[in-house]
Design a protein that fits this description.
- It is a single chain.
- A hairpin with a 3-residue loop joins strand 2 and strand 3.
- It contains ten helices and four strands; from the N terminus they run βαββαβαααααααα.
- Strands 2-3-1-4 form a four-stranded antiparallel beta sheet, with helices on one face.
- It is globular, with a radius of gyration of 20 Å.
- With about 260 residues, the chain is of the alpha+beta class.
Length: about 260
């Protein structure tokens, strides 16, 4: 049965979510997060997008953008294909990375626009990843607060901030109060279900429990078949990222990913 065509936004503004297939991680280290943002910036320039907000979590992405010089579906496909190509090259894998096509909702009013910005920025807080919105490095929140943001010139904050005041300093203060206000916002029928990440010490204890009498330092020296069996079990520990597991076990993220 053919997919239903997306209804075009009258404002051209869309809240978009990509999820990893089977909710798998799509970012494993800083290079991955930066690469996705670099790709987004490239297509912002090429396709004349306006980027109001973003948040990159471990297994999904939120972007709030205004359509540019081509249909939003085409632009999003370009961004997705570019990141998947990078990911498959880096991790020497094939197949689907994202879960089906991206989800989107139209943003038709200024009131809902600022609500979506807040919802996006509060994702890591509501997921228990950080305590304050600006603590999460991989969202646009810091840019709204006047803190340096990677990459430069990706965020278009002026339109949102001027809704709070024409005075830039006052606008930032008022936006910050709004952005951190407790709420029950629900956008795009989405629920925050990212599990809290364990600290390295907590992760180490969980791995020790799994290994039982085996020492952590011995895992990397195991025969390949046995080592992969152990790594698959480590990957299944809730709240432990591949990068954490690699640090603790002394093996590469690639090795764990392919196990």
């Amino acid at each position: 049965m053919p997919r239903e065509a997306r209804v075009k936004s009258k404002t051209g503004i869309y809240h978009i979510i990509w999820r990893g297939a089977n909710r798998q991680e799509i970012f494993h280290d800083e290079e991955d997060w930066k690469k996705f943002l670099d790709i987004l910036k490239k297509y912002k320039t090429n396709c004349e997008l306006i980027v109001y907000a973003w948040c990159l979590m471990n297994n999904h992405v939120h972007v709030l953008i205004k359509e540019g010089n081509e249909d939003i579906s085409i632009t999003m496909k370009r961004i997705g294909v570019s990141y998947v190509g990078y990911y498959n090259w880096k991790y020497r894998t094939t197949g689907h990375l994202f879960q089906d096509r991206f989800k989107s909702e139209n943003v038709e009013t200024n009131k809902y626009l600022v609500t979506v910005v807040r919802y996006i920025h509060q994702n890591p807080v509501k997921a228990g990843m950080v305590k304050q919105t600006e603590d999460w490095e991989w969202s646009s929140c810091r840019g709204y607060y006047g803190i340096d943001l990677y990459p430069k010139n990706l965020l278009d904050s002026h339109f949102i901030l001027k809704m709070f005041s024409v005075d830039r300093t006052m606008a930032k203060d008022r936006f910050k109060e709004f952005n951190e206000r407790k709420n029950s916002d629900k956008c795009l029928d989405d629920t925050v279900n990212e599990k809290r990440r364990l600290s390295d010490e907590e992760a180490r204890l969980e791995i020790k429990k799994l290994l039982s009498s085996m020492e952590i330092a011995h895992v990397k020296s195991l025969p390949k078949v046995k080592r992969n069996e152990v790594l698959r079990k480590v990957k299944a520990i809730e709240g432990v990222s591949l990068r954490q597991a690699g640090r603790i076990l002394g093996v590469s993220v690639n090795l764990i990913f392919r196990a």
